[in-house]
Amino acid sequence: MSLDIPKGFSANAVRAGIRGRNRLDLGLIVSDTPAVVAGVFTRNIVKAAPVVYDRDLVKSGRARAILVNSGIANACTGAAGMEQVRTCAAMAADVVGTDAAEVLVASTGVIGESLDISCFSNHMDELAAGLAPEGFDLVSRAMMTTDTVPKVSQRRILVNGCEVRVLGLAKGAGMIHPDMATMLAFIVTDAAIAPALLQQILRNKVDTSFNRITIDGDTSTNDTVLVLANGRAANPELRHGEKAAGFAAALGEVLEDLALMIVRDGEGATKMIHVRVNGAVDDLDAARAAMVVATSSLVKTAFFGADANWGRILAALGRSGARFDPEKVTISFGDVTLVENGTAVDGDAEARATRLLQVREIDLFIDLAAGAGAAVYHTSDLSLDYVKINADYRT
Amino acid sequence: MSLDIPKGFSANAVRAGIRGRNRLDLGLIVSDTPAVVAGVFTRNIVKAAPVVYDRDLVKSGRARAILVNSGIANACTGAAGMEQVRTCAAMAADVVGTDAAEVLVASTGVIGESLDISCFSNHMDELAAGLAPEGFDLVSRAMMTTDTVPKVSQRRILVNGCEVRVLGLAKGAGMIHPDMATMLAFIVTDAAIAPALLQQILRNKVDTSFNRITIDGDTSTNDTVLVLANGRAANPELRHGEKAAGFAAALGEVLEDLALMIVRDGEGATKMIHVRVNGAVDDLDAARAAMVVATSSLVKTAFFGADANWGRILAALGRSGARFDPEKVTISFGDVTLVENGTAVDGDAEARATRLLQVREIDLFIDLAAGAGAAVYHTSDLSLDYVKINADYRT
Q: What interface predicted TM-score (ipTM) does this complex get?
């Protein structure tokens, strides 16, 4: 994909040897001028040092750079870990020529190990020297851990006649679960927008993108989504919701693209399943039902085995807490209806559904016939490779 | 194990060919005289036909027999499934020489398929003809689905100088999760006991046994625990809590034995982990923390990989909802302390913990340092075989 870089941004990534590996693992994103910043972070009460640091910094509403490393998460590292975040931010500020209070820091990788600060100090000059608009591709690779592909999405829109670009990078393949700003995602845009409005749009759009995906029900200590908006598109500053609808839609699409890329690249995943619940008493019940189905180990192993095992889906619905009458439920895979009024449809529906499960992307439609509530969750299957990857991750 | 059968009970099991298989799959347990009955059932709102049927029958407080089949769960089978339960109960009542209202029915296996009633009618005479005290061993095998071993536990106690026997059978290896009377368990005893007291003791003891185990976080449509007490030990009838303490303890031990056997035989399990949380704000917080750790896919795959990955444990605690300060947590595997005050203990603790993870049974101690609350959950690891078993279960 040829990237359409928002004006005034550059990036670079290098091999810093974190955890002794020889791969891109340290990245830097810089705005030439101070940018408006918005962020959402993990709700896990165990927060990595960079999350605690960024959360404070984002409150100021302004930033110029994001320093990101993979390999070590700098989580559960105590006061020493927090001191290392400050040191790294100061080093990056130095090479960028800004104040440490304008440098955000993000880390992903193994929890509990300490960073070797020399990996950062030895490579900071090289990192800064290579800053260029084309560098975003390198950063998208430097963020990867168990990811198998880099994750990039972009949009270009017109705001009051001005061209505005939105470019997003994300990483994530395990420890992925709804109700979190899941894993790392960085979005840069040259839109001019007020800080409070950017934060509000980001929070809304995360709820319907990153907060609607699950891979394994586990949530991270490092989840971070950051947006930098430097205003270089020179549009009249967006200050109110209705005027910002076009920008909000573009940002939402980028976030949803990235969220779906994360599910598609889920650890060991062979399939992506869209769990679409309709007819719930309300949207909350629909979300609850969809989430429990999307996280059920038995449902996810059945999808891996291409087994149209609707009994497991109904059993998961039954423990979800959603209110419905089991004897009124309809379940369909794609256009094949398997269950009507809570019991199996006669004929060859299950055989047709099983054939349908050979593809990589599947729509699972559930109608609870209890109201007008609706929700969708996106999940992956639970495969042999998921277990292999996570039994061996650190060794 | 040589079984010590409570007086006045007999049992038998046969190969009925349910789902076309050639294995023990139909069992019958009979008390010579009417017995007091108590039962607890799944809280899943999708309930199999025999669960709905038994729940009503248990309210009468009396029963004489339990008919159990494996292969097909008779769940999500609508009105036809319920009619089949009544037919099966009537057939069993006929051969036993009792009323259909005194025959309980339990099924386990695939959800959504219909029973072939001829499997029952063709084998009912053979089933009754072979009834004998030694038959409990056969029934424990006929109940198995993905179980690899039958699960039996027994105790003998003195109640007012009378010998009282308690014998329990259980099945279960998948769709196992706390907050349920998990899967099938049948307990027979010759104790004389009032129905309300038996029900009360059963409910209490299930809470600290079956409701504290998890294999995959999924819960069944068929979970059933039944106790038949026929009074043939001729002890003075137990009517009050304090007099029944010895009996309650014995029943509790049998239930806990069976619950731990289920975890040990968890689908694909190579290890059993006892998650012991102390120092929580209260017992509820402790239970919440222990349950989230015990169900985390990332924690369970790490145990499979013999990886002392305490970061995943801390991350799971952090999303559990339990209230604690991450910087005060202590985590130990057996007698090896890995984490103190939320960060790694220096030295070779992790290497020693990794060696400790080679064994089949592991104590995981977590101290939240926030209060006096405590709880324990028992879980299995998440292995390659779990995925294989569940991707292939119906094929």
A: 0.77
